Amino acid sequence: MSRLYQQKHVETHNLKAADLRHLMLLIYTILVYNSLNISTKGAHIMNNTALFEAFENGVLRVPNMTKPFADIPWTDHPAYGGVQLKHLITSKDTDGKFSYHLIRIAPKMSINGHMHQTQLETHEVISGTGVCVNNGQELAYETGVMTIFQPQTLHSVTAGDDGLQIFAKFMPPLV
Questions:
Q1: In whole angstroms, what is the distance from residue 58 CA to residue 133 CA?
Q2: Pairwise CA distance, residues 83 & 138, whole Å
Q3: What are the tens digits of pLDDT across the range 40-90?
Q4: From the CB of residue 146, how many other CB atoms can be counted at a distance below 10 Å?
Q5: How far apart are alpha carbons 72 and 70 in whole angstroms?
Q6: How many Å apart are CA 50 and CA 133, to the nearest integer?
Q7: What interhelical angle do 48-56 and 3-35 show, nearest 10?
Q8: Are 101 and 168 in contact (CB under 8 A)?
Q9: Which of 4, 53, 66, 152 measures 20 to 30 Å from 72, CA to CA?
């Protein structure tokens, strides 16, 4: 093989691997941009509950497969009352690379301190308010906030008076 072919092959392979990692961040960025209502009096967030509901009833489309999210049931968290999960994209969909979930936390309810041994986890707050403790540091949760939990990092989340709606990703997958 020529050196040029080898270099192009490596670049193409790296691009494909990067696509999977960056696709979800790109989608989120576009959605947040489209959900902003800019006025002359400043920027304010539109109804992000509607954005969350759009994903709750959305669809995953990839070659040779369509997966309606409305067909996926909400499940109660097995350990934390007032917390529901919807597993939109699982390890089966990503060849074991990551998973993507919707999380609803009822007002004043919590996901108490816990950690994941092998997973990196991200949260993107879509609506509501609350507090997250990430590795001992308290962080305010409100629409537009993202955080990252490294593997083996103690973290918790408590919803405020209006509850919380979060997109969560796990790499490697949670389920």
A1: 30
A2: 20
A3: 333 334 467 788 888 888 999 989 889 999 999 999 999 999 999 999 999
A4: 13
A5: 5
A6: 27
A7: 130
A8: yes
A9: 152
Residue type at 116 in one-letter notation: H
Q: Are 135 and 76 in contact (CB under 8 A)?
A: no
Structure tokens belonging to residue 43: 């920027």
CB-neighbour burial class of residue 50 (10 A; exposed 0-12, middle 13-18, buried 19+): exposed
Left if phi > 0, otherwise alpha if psi is -120 to 50, otherwise beta: which for 94? alpha
- The full DSSP string for the chain is --HHHHHHHHHHHHHHHHHHHHHHHHHHHHHHHHHEEEETTEEEE--HHHHHHHHHT-EEEETTEEEEGGGSPPEE-SSSTTEEEEEEE-HHHHTTS-EEEEEEE-TT-EEEEE--SS-EEEEEEEEEEEEEEETTEEEEEETT-EEEE-TT--EEEEEEEEEEEEEEEEES---
Count of positions (residues) in the chain: 175
List pLDDT tens digits, range 97-139: 999 999 999 999 999 999 999 999 999 999 999 999 999 999 9
